[in-house]
Here is the input.
Amino acid sequence: MKLHVDQKADALYLRLHDSTIIESEEVSPGVVLDYDAQNRVVGVEILNLSQRAPQLNPRALEFVTV
Here is the structure.
């Protein structure tokens, strides 16, 4: 799993699996899901990140495992 925050593009991308992306779908404004050949979600892109999370500090992202 890889998380990429692009401050210049104001976007966050979470890659869940390295399989080839076959299709992408915008499921709500500014939220795009990437699918593989088995129709599994392998990536999530969130656009306009600064508007959605104005207090976000990309250098201080917290990962929690339950």
